[in-house]
Amino acid sequence: MATKRLSLVVSHRAVLVRPRRRFVSAMATQKPNSGPDFSKNGGLVAAIAQDAATGEVLMMAYMNAEAYAETLATGQAVYFSRSRNRLWRKGEESGHVQRVREVYVDCDGDAVLLKVEQVGGAACHTGFRTCFFRQVTPEGLKVVGQRVFNPEEVYRRGPSSPT
Amino acid sequence: MATKRLSLVVSHRAVLVRPRRRFVSAMATQKPNSGPDFSKNGGLVAAIAQDAATGEVLMMAYMNAEAYAETLATGQAVYFSRSRNRLWRKGEESGHVQRVREVYVDCDGDAVLLKVEQVGGAACHTGFRTCFFRQVTPEGLKVVGQRVFNPEEVYRRGPSSPT
């Protein structure tokens, strides 16, 4: 598969202070059918984050149109938290942001795939590299993932799943 | 990440004729909290299929409890088609089944990751290797994926997205 890099990369500081104009204007000039289809499923599309370097699937969440637009504009992953009913800027509390390298849209437009650089080395709020750290075995679920941080030390209000 | 292989592999013929008893009984003896949580989201969990050999994310769909149980029992991916409102045995028409090598459950139990061998080389009903064959660029969506088959030749009734 071709992996031409989308020049979405901006520094953490730049993202928080001011999104780069180029990506905002690129979004604004896109045709209506040039992105995901937010007209179904309550305005949400599924969003899969995959480690751009290792190919590991890190997490799965949802985006609304605003989250998707902000992701493209800033180059950092923004999801929509169904449990909190608001935008969820990944890493907003932990600092473990996801720098988005490439974005793909699936055949029917209801899912996107983000290839990301995971700052801090762990995508999961439990401290594991990936949210998919439990494998199904005939004996039940077995933890096979690698724990990178202690969530009690990272989250002031304790970890909770925002998906 | 550890990649201990789940011995889920069965031949195509064996699956269609009779699921191997060992996996059915393994499911039956699992504890209630040893798998995905089907109590939320209308009984559905998100299911991501990833190529076990290349790491490529192939598709994203949904499973209900019955689809998940049948997937484990047969070793072939079974989803729940929201548009058709019934079980969707991947490859039932095209023959392009997914042989499931490993299954992972995410932190809050509302998504599963399948590592699969994609028979026929293409997961997407459009004939592309992956459903994520369109990349977002500043100029709009660009087809970057590899087309493996012509859907008009594979589907008798024409291709349609079952997700």
Describe this structure in words.
- The structure is a homodimer of 163-residue chains.
- The first copy, chain A, is of the alpha+beta class.
- Chain A has a single domain, classed as Phosphoribosyl-AMP cyclohydrolase (Ubiquitin-like (UB roll)), CATH 3.10.20.810.
- In chain A, the strands form 3 sheets. The first copy, chain A, has a 4-stranded mixed sheet, covered by helices on one side.
- In chain A, β1 and β2 form a beta hairpin.
- In chain A, α2 crosses α3.
- The longest helix of chain A is centred in the middle third of the chain and has 10 residues.
- Chain A is globular and about 40 Å long.
- The two termini of chain A are 29 Å apart.
- The relative contact order of chain A is 0.18.
- Chains A and B meet through α2, β1, β2, β5 and β6 of A and α2, β1, β2, β5 and β6 of B.
- β7 of chain A pairs antiparallel with β5 of chain B.
Descriptors:
homodimer, 163 residues, alpha+beta, Ubiquitin-like (UB roll), four-stranded mixed sheet, two-stranded antiparallel sheet, 4 helices, 8 strands, 28% strand, globular
Topology:
Two copies of one chain form a homodimer.
Chain A: H1 12-17, H2 21-28, E1 45-51, E2 57-63, H3 65-74, E3 78-81, E4 86-89, E5 98-105, E6 111-118, E7 134-137, E8 140-143, H4 151-154
Parallel strand pairs in A: 1-6
Antiparallel strand pairs in A: 1-2, 3-4, 5-6, 7-8
Gist?
Two copies of one chain form a homodimer. Chain A is α+β, with helices and mostly antiparallel strands and 163 residues long.
Which fold name is given in CATH as the topology of chain A? Ubiquitin-like (UB roll)
The name of the CATH superfamily of chain A reads Phosphoribosyl-AMP cyclohydrolase
**Uncertain segments of chain A:** 1-5, 9-30
Structural class of the secondary elements of chain A?
alpha+beta
**Range of helix content of chain A:** 10-25%
Q: What's the gyration radius of chain A in Å? A: 16 Å
Give helix and strand order of chain A, one letter per element, not per position.
HHEEHEEEEEEH
The CATH architecture name of chain A reads Roll
Provide mean pLDDT of chain A, rounded.
83
Provide the spatial order of strands within the biggest beta sheet of chain A. Answer: 2-1-6-5
Give the overall silhouette of chain A. globular
**What is the number of E strands of chain A?**
8
Number of helices of chain A: 4
Number of domains of chain A: 1
Largest sheet of chain A: 4 strands, mixed
Oligomer: homodimer
Through-space gap between termini of chain A: 29 Å
- Classify the beta-strand content of chain A into a percent band: 25-35%
Biggest chain contact:
A-B, 54 and 53 residues
